[in-house]
Amino acid sequence: MLMLAANLDPERWRVTLLLDDDPGADPVEELATGEGLAVERLRPTPQGLAGAWSARQLLGLLRRRRPALFHAHLSWPVAAKWPLAAAVAARVPAVATVQLIPDFELDRSTFWQLRLLSRGVGRYIGVSRAVADELVERFRWPAAKVSVVYNAVELDRFGGEPSPELREELGGGAEPLFLTLARLEPQKGLDVLLRAAARTPGASFAIAGEGPLRGELEALAAELGVAERVRLLGRRGDVPALLAACDAFVLPSLYEGSSLAVLEAMAARRPAISSAIPGTDELVEDGVDGLLTRPGDPVALAAALQRLLDDAPLRERLAARAQAKVEQRFSPATLASGVESVYEGLLSDGRAGR
């Protein structure tokens, strides 16, 4: 979201970032103001009926300001439904970007709420073709309103020199080191990674991220006898340095929209192993610029890990091609250009009296 706002053409778009008036949004405001973006804080809008009451503040603001566009970034399709409804009620052209569609039961009430809302939202952006297709097929949103614009990474953040001290801290030393960037949640398949690590002697693993499964993962690592070779790093703010310090990247997710962690590894010129799942298979071509394995299969993942360990030319070839792909297809400029095209299309439809 911040990358997009910072890379839109400033001569065409003036951006104001609306954030919940909640301490959890403080780091986002700090980053946004550092980019020179205007920020306003609003009353939080929860999913239930209380969210409809809270959204009145946003409705009033939109009616007063009359912005050209309202753009909501949704972690999943049900997120931010009340802010989007406020934009529709205020007759502001609305765009919604959907990052992920988790494995969840879509009850009848939610389905019809989203279907009704889709009539008013002008455009939806899926961050992968897989997300866009599911929005149409599962949620029955109008295909003409759904576009694909992939996520991007800031290339100049990556490529620094590796730190021997950091590598030692991560447990690499002289051993090959695999890095994972992920929340400690079931979606990321980290139990599969630990079981694969048990089948891959002679390698160390570092997992950067925090989440509710930390205790379970620590217990499983001890049970599998890999606790000495697997480090859970917790939340980290030095992702580029972590990637520079590792030999390869691995993310055995069970589902993704368009993984930023995979794109960051590719940008850092690190060979990546990922699950062959919708969305990720649009970023990585197996055997060309990364390796894809069956999701949920620790034996297949261990085989891929060992393949990278045994083949240094393969590691270099995959890493070089991955970095080149990110530079060509997943840059902030490409992201901004794609979203600006969506904006222009929506505004042109409005001027044509759609």
Question: How is this structure best described in words?
Answer:
The chain is α/β, with parallel strands linked by helices and 354 residues long. The two termini are 28 Å apart. The longest helix has 20 residues, at 332-351. The chain contains 15 helices and twelve strands. The chain has a six-stranded parallel β-sheet, sandwiched between helices. The chain is globular, with a radius of gyration of 21 Å.
**Total DSSP helices:** 15
Q: What is the overall shape?
A: globular
Q: Main beta sheet, described?
A: 6 strands, parallel
Largest sheet strand order = 9-8-7-10-11-12
- Mean pLDDT score: 93
Number of strands: 12
Helix/strand structural class: alpha/beta
Low-confidence stretches: none
Ordered list of secondary-structure elements with their pairings:
Blueprint: H1 2-7, E1 16-20, H2 26-34, E2 38-42, H3 49-54, H4 56-65, E3 70-74, H5 81-89, E4 94-98, H6 108-120, E5 123-126, H7 129-137, E6 146-148, H8 164-170, E7 177-181, H9 190-198, E8 204-208, H10 214-224, E9 230-234, H11 239-245, E10 248-251, H12 260-267, E11 272-275, E12 291-293, H13 298-310, H14 312-329, H15 332-351
Parallel strand pairs: 1-2, 3-4, 4-5, 5-6, 7-8, 7-10, 8-9, 10-11, 11-12
Q: Brief description of this entry?
A:
The chain has helices at residues 2-7, 26-34, 49-54, 56-65, 81-89, 108-120, 129-137, 164-170, 190-198, 214-224, 239-245, 260-267, 298-310, 312-329, 332-351; strands spanning 16-20, 38-42, 70-74, 94-98, 123-126, 146-148, 177-181, 204-208, 230-234, 248-251, 272-275, 291-293. 44% of the residues lie in helices and 15% in strands.
